[in-house]
Design brief:
There is one protein chain. This protein has 101 residues and is α+β, with helices and mostly antiparallel strands. Helices cover 44% and strands 20% of the residues. The protein has 3 helices and 4 strands; from the N terminus they run H-E-E-H-E-E-H. It has a 4-stranded antiparallel sheet. Helix 2 packs antiparallel against helix 3. The longest helix has 18 residues. It is globular.
Length: 101
Amino acid sequence: MAVEPLSQKEIEDRLAELPGWSLDGDRITRSYRLGTHFAATAMVVHIAQVQEELDHHSDLTLGYNTVSLSVNTHSAGGRVTELDFGLARKVEDLAQGHGAH
């Protein structure tokens, strides 16, 4: 079953439920700050595991004590879909467990 791109209104509605996430062009994005480089690295590993389980992957960037994600759905023409928000919700749960803000 093909996944369909979300409308602008649907994207805005879903973003309202995910503080810190925003639309940047054709992707949803979020950055997190953690206490240490090691904590940020651990969070990246956990995000990678979730992405493998979902078979849906973001562009994931590790900084000194930051983690940034940028995601859209390639199979939907590089547009934002419900798959992206599913990943974002799981990452938010992980971030809380890692003490990210």
